[in-house]
């Protein structure tokens, strides 16, 4: 994966400064070893995910990466220090591959993003001291460790926007006998833009600096200014370019030659990519997101597939070994039975050999001598010993009959030797049954693992692009539709709690609240005289589920309801009513022991499929595909992934959609 150039970083910082300044820091994650995702919220825009990959890239992304179950120390520190901070500025340091992000909370923090070499991400305090780096590094002139002063890397690049002709001439004079294209590249412009400058200047890129005339130096300087003029004027042309089709055409014309396809993301149009296929984007952030996210998808795919292949191959190799063992058992049975039968088929001939050996042993001949005499007899043409092959020092002989080698103990009779082979066949038969059971078990385990791999790859390997949905007003709150078709909504936080009452509580509605500190205001669009036991049960369960009783792991919770006129924001003299809270005056009608459980599913409502979290009875009325959860011990993200895999019809939902409707706190399935 290509690293962002100085030019890329200049462009991206211009856009990030416009889009993120004033945004509030929300959460931080570390999906991979070198990648940190910072989530921001900006008024009027909503969620913005900034992906930072040390040494590679920085841009806003619509492709959320899978976050680890146990976050590392670095993102946890970012959450602790930066959550709630506001972005003050984002800038490139000296046209180098270093980005400074300033954020203000009680104090001002600076996040340094180093995009050169292997890169780093470093959090600094107001005194420019390192709070924590993503990676600790040490050089002779720089120490990237906690509590050390942060020093920027030595400047070695040029800023083409502010560069003067005098500064340029000095750079050329210092180049001596080096090629001009190398000098430009080494001074922060990189090979791509160094070659582009020489292409525009129409001077050979291999010209030595010392051989350039004054006129040529001015021509190259003017070409440099022409190439980077769009940066100075902020007239960017974000695009992804590739020459894949051209390469395929060349390959067809010259199949013996090897051609390499090139793909790149750029912010200004350049001559070198003339003839390349181009895909334009509204912003450089969007172009980078599509370019880098496609590369990341492939990397994630390869890593995940490799990991799962190891698990699958474990069972494949076991199955292969077991099937080979079964084959050997069958061969052993066949060979052993055949050898036992051959002993009886050639009984007389074998018995003559055994008698010769017996007589020789009685005359005190050694096994070696007997074996040699039998070999000599075979050479002389004696018919009975033509099947003899060899004899070992223990008196065991080898016979070759019908191409089969049969080993016998010459001290035993033919029936006893045959019994050895028959017993061997019986033993192998007994083992076949166990081998077949083992093979079936392994096949089942292999099929299960392949199914798990397929499911995991679908969920993990390709991050789905997050698209902003046009939510109905009630979808921005918590909501459900009762068995009888009554819409019920409640607040998600203090701000929406305030809005639920002020905007949506009308005279003919009912107000509900769980009888516990930390519960939302619930509005049911129904008159109180229309309430019945089943509806009250559903309203109570909904109100209880989204209260703090869930995170406290309660199994039930009391809920009360009142008329709209009983709900007031006016406190008694001397009292204060915080944001999202209300004063209830008069009699409260209680719904006792409301069960804490909630069901999540896709329902047809208001002309469209929507994800809904509501009481189980209500869910059963609107869909037959849902899951039910209760307070538990599993993290929301893990539960959400499983819910998504169970209810995601036609791939309409994202993980964020599911997380958004879950109660606050850990959960378990019922």
TrEMBL record:
Entry-linked Gene3D superfamilies: ibrinogen binding protein from staphylococcus aureus domain
Biological processes annotated in GO: rescue of stalled ribosome
Ranges in a coiled coil: 312-339, 425-459
Any single GO CC term annotated in Swiss-Prot or TrEMBL for this entry: RQC complex
Record's keyword terms, sorted: Coiled coil, Protein biosynthesis, RNA-binding, rRNA-binding, tRNA-binding
Function description: Probably part of the ribosome quality control system (RQC). May mediate the addition of alanine residues (Ala tailing) to incompletely synthesized nascent chains from stalled ribosomes, leading to their degradation.
UniProt record similarity statement: Belongs to the NEMF family.
Identification of the protein by name: Archaeal Rqc2 homolog aRqcH
């Amino acid at each position: 994966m290509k690293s962002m150039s100085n030019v890329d970083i200049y462009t991206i910082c211009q856009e990030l400064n416009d889009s993120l300044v004033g945004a509030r820091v929300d959460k931080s994650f570390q999906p991979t070893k070198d990648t940190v995702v910072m989530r921001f919220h900006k008024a009027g825009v909503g969620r913005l995910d900034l992906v930072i990959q040390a040494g590679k890239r920085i841009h806003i992304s619509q492709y959320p990466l899978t976050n680890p179950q146990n976050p590392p120390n670095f993102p946890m520190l970012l959450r602790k220090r930066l959550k709630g901070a506001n972005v003050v500025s984002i800038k490139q340091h000296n046209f180098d591959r270093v980005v400074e992000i300033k954020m203000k909370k009680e104090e001002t923090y600076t996040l340094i993003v180093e995009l050169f070499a292997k890169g780093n991400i470093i959090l600094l305090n107001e005194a420019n001291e390192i709070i924590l780096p993503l990676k600790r590094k040490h050089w002779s002139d720089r120490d990237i460790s906690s509590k050390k002063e942060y020093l920027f890397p030595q400047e070695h690049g040029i800023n083409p926007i502010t560069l003067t002709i005098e500064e340029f001439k000095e750079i050329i004079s210092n180049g001596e006998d080096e090629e001009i294209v190398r000098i430009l590249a080494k001074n922060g412009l990189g090979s791509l833009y160094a070659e582009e400058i020489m292409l525009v200047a129409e001077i050979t890129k291999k010209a030595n600096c010392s051989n350039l005339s004054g006129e040529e130096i001015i021509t190259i300087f003017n070409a440099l200014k022409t190439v980077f003029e769009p940066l100075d004027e902020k007239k960017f042309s974000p695009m992804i370019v590739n020459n894949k089709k051209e390469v395929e055409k060349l390959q067809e014309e010259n199949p013996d030659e090897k051609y390499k396809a090139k793909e790149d993301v750029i912010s200004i149009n350049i001559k070198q990519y003339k003839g390349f296929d181009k895909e334009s984007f509204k912003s450089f952030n969007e172009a980078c997101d599509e370019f880098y996210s496609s590369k990341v998808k492939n990397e994630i795919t390869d890593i995940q597939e490799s990991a799962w292949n190891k698990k699958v191959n474990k069972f494949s190799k076991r199955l292969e070994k077991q099937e080979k063992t079964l084959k050997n058992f069958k061969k052993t049975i066949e060979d052993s039975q055949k050898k036992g039968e051959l002993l009886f088929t050639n009984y007389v001939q074998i018995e003559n050999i055994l008698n010769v050996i017996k007589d020789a042993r009685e005359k005190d001949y050694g096994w070696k001598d007997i074996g040699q005499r039998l070999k000599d007899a075979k050479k002389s043409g004696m018919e009975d010993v033509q099947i003899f092959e060899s004899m070992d020092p223990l008196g065991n002989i080898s016979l070759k009959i019908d191409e089969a080698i049969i080993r016998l103990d010459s001290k035993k009779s033919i029936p006893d030797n045959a019994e050895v082979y028959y017993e061997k066949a019986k033993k192998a038969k007994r083992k076949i049954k166990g081998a077949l059971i083992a093979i079936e078990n392994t096949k089942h385990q292999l099929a299960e693992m392949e199914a798990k791999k397929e499911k995991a790859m679908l969920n993990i390997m390709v991050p789905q692009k997050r698209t902003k949905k046009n939510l109905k007003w009630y979808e921005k709150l918590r909501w459900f539709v009762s068995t009888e078709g009554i819409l019920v909504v409640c607040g998600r936080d203090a701000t929406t709690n305030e809005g639920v009452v002020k905007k949506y509580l009308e005279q003919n509605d009912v107000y509900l609240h769980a009888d516990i500190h930390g519960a939302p205001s619930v509005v049911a669009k129904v008159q109180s005289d229309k309430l019945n036991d089943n509806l009250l049960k559903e309203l109570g369960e909904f109100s209880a589920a989204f209260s703090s009783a869930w995170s406290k792991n309660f199994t039930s919770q009391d809920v009360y309801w009142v008329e709209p006129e009983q709900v007031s924001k006016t406190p008694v003299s001397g009292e204060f009513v915080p944001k999202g809270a209300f004063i209830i005056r008069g009699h409260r009608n209680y719904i006792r022991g409301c069960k804490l459980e909630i069901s999540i599913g896709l329902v047809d409502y208001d002309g469209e499929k929507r994800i809904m979290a509501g009481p189980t009875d209500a869910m059963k009325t609107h869909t037959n595909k849902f899951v039910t959860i209760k307070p538990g011990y599993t993290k929301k993200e893990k539960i959400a992934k499983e819910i998504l895999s169970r209810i995601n019809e036609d791939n309409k939902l994202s993980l964020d959609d599911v997380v958004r409707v879950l109660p606050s706190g850990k959960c378990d399935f019922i």
